[in-house]
């Protein structure tokens, strides 16, 4: 991004400070998306000042006021771009970041966040199966069915997966992850 | 607001600041950059708009927004819906 050059040193400081705030907000995005966001904000600033022939500082303060706090104005843009990044890369780190940023956008994202937390517990179960095989598994009993770790062994409950527990959990993890990405894509395609 | 933006882009492509001025002059609608930027991003994600950066002699490029085919279809539906409501 080409920075705007101001004649007045104070204006330059104000501008630099605003761009630095924008950079902090978009830092979570890919380098390309960061550049895109900064170029767009920069363009709004430049075009406004170029179109308003008041003194430099007044014009700058007016457009920064219209742009608002970067932490608020860029929030939706950053959240949206983060989802795209998560969908494109299938990277679980980006998925977490995207879900966290979008939690406030609705129940669907809360559900997705829950599913993602569930996804993270699966590797833990695999490790626990290796450490405490007799206490970790898929447990069934009268009115009971769950996947996890058990302390003690209540009467009537038995483990059914045995040595297949780890492969089952791996397959479930993959299916859950694909389901999360599919739901994300479906939400993204939702029409206004 | 999406209707006004799509309508403004129906006849020609515009960049963000130009769009704001156009809405103010032709639709008597005041929109700030803090509203317009996220809105344009959203409309683009919904495939209603497409965009392209165009280099400028000043060195500060402009991001031009164009209405997509899907955007035109959506705009036609919005117009139809508005007309139906007006005739009721």
TrEMBL record, chain A:
**UniProt keyword list:** Membrane, Transmembrane, Transmembrane helix
Q: Does the keyword Transmembrane helix apply?
A: yes
List where the protein spans the membrane.
107-131, 164-187
Name the record gives this protein = DUF1700 domain-containing protein
Question: What species is this protein from?
Answer: Chitinophaga silvisoli
């Amino acid at each position: 991004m080409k920075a705007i050059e101001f004649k007045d040193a104070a204006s330059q400081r104000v501008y630099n400070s605003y761009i630095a705030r924008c950079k902090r907000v978009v830092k979570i995005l890919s380098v390309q998306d960061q550049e895109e966001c900064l170029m767009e904000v920069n363009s709004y600033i430049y075009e406004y000042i170029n179109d308003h022939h008041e003194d430099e500082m007044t014009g700058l303060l007016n457009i920064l006021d219209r742009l608002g706090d970067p932490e608020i104005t860029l929030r939706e843009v950053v959240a949206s771009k983060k989802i795209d990044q998560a969908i494109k890369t299938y990277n679980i780190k980006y998925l977490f970041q995207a879900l966290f940023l979008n939690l406030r956008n609705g129940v669907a994202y809360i559900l997705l966040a829950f599913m993602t937390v569930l996804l993270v517990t699966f590797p833990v179960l695999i490790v626990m199966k290796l450490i405490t095989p007799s206490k970790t598994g898929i447990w069934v009993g009268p009115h009971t069915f769950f996947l996890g770790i058990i302390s003690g062994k209540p009467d009537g409950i038995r483990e059914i997966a045995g040595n297949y527990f780890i492969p089952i959990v791996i397959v479930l993890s993959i299916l859950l992850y694909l389901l999360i990405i599919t739901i994300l894509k479906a939400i993204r395609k939702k029409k206004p | 607001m999406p209707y006004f933006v799509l309508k403004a882009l129906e006849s020609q492509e515009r960049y963000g600041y130009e769009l704001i001025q156009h809405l103010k002059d032709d639709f008597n609608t005041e929109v700030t950059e803090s509203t317009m930027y996220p809105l344009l991003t959203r409309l683009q994600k919904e495939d209603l708009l497409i965009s392209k950066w165009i280099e400028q002699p000043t060195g500060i490029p402009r991001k031009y927004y164009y209405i997509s085919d899907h955007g035109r279809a959506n705009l036609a539906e919005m117009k139809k819906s508005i007309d139906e409501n007006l005739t009721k």
